[in-house]
Amino acid sequence: MEKVRIGFIGVGGMAEYHMKTLQQIDDAVITAVCDMNADRAREIAETFGAKPYGTLEEMLDAGVIDALYICTPPFAREGIEEAAAARGIHLLSEKPTGLQMEEVRRKEQIIRESGIIHSSGYCLRYLDTVQKAKQYLADKQVDMVLAYRIGGMPEVGWWRLMNLSGGQLVEQSTHQVDLIRYLAGEFDYVQANYEQRHIHRNYPEATVYDVGIVSFGLRSGALGTISNTVLSRKIGRGDVEFFGHDFYVSISGMTVRIVDDTQDVTLTSEMDFYLEQNRAFVAAVKTGRQELVLGDYSEAAATLEVTLAANDSAVAKQTIKITSA
C-alpha cells in the first residue's frame, strides 16, 4: 500500500492528539472518523481532511480504511475489535481495552486468529529512556519496585463511576503497571486497599476511590507497591523505581536515572512518544511486521488483568493471584 489509510472511532482529546502526530508520518493518511457526537465528528473530519460516518459499520464497510484507532472510553467497546478483525482491518486499541477480563480475552483470541496487526495505547514503552532502562535491567535482579500515580481528578463525569472507568489504577496508573511488567516481569499477586477520602465533597455521586495503595509480588520474587491518588492538586508524580542490591533505576516522566557502583547518570528524553508509537504502528501495518509494535493487544490484556485483579482485591479484602498473564 502507498499510504496506510486510518479511521478513528471516538474523536475526543486523545484521538485528536493521535491525529496530529499521524499528520507528521508520510506513510499515513486519516480518511474516516466516527463518534456518537455527530457535531464533534464533523468538526474533526473537517480539521483533518477525513469523512465523518454515522456508525462504525458504515465506516468499516466503506472500504476507505486499512487501520482503525479505537479511542472510545473503556465502557464503550462492544463489538468494535471483532468487527474490524472480521474485515481484516488492523487495530490500535487505546488503553484500557475494556472493563471485563473475560470479554477482553475473547477479543484477544479473535484478534490474534485474524492475523491483523494489533497495537495498544501503552505509549511509554517507545521512550528511548525506557528502552535504556530495559537494556540496563535485562540481566539485573530487581528486588523491590515502588510506583506512583499522583495528581488531580479528570473532569469527565463517566470517569468518576467505577463501572464506567474502573478507577484510577485501570484508567491512569495502568501506565505504571505496564512499565513494571515491561521492565521487571509478570505480576504474581496483588493486594489492594482503596478509600474515598475527599471525593464526595465535590462529587457526591462518585463511586471511584480517590486514594489507593496496591501491594504486589512479581513472579521473580520481587515485592512492590503502587500508590495512587486523584486528590492531589499541588503535586503530581508518575514514577516507577527499581531497586536491586547494587543498583537503582528510576523512570520519572521523560527522565531515567541509573545509579550503581560505576555511575550516577540521568537522561531526559525529548521524544514525542505518541509519534514514535504511531510511527511504529503505521510501519507495522505497511510492512506486515507485528514485531515493530512494542505493546500489542495481548500485552494490554495482561496489564488490564493486573489492574482489574487489584480492584477485585480491594472489594474482597484479600490477595488475588494473577493466573493467566
TrEMBL record:
InterPro entries: Gfo/Idh/MocA-like_OxRdtase_N (IPR000683), Gfo/Idh/MocA_Oxidoreductase (IPR052515), GFO_IDH_MocA-like_dom (IPR055170), NAD(P)-bd_dom_sf (IPR036291). Residues 156-243 form the GFO/IDH/MocA-like oxidoreductase domain. It comes from the Bacteria. Residues 4-120 form the Gfo/Idh/MocA-like oxidoreductase N-terminal domain. This is Gfo/Idh/MocA family oxidoreductase.
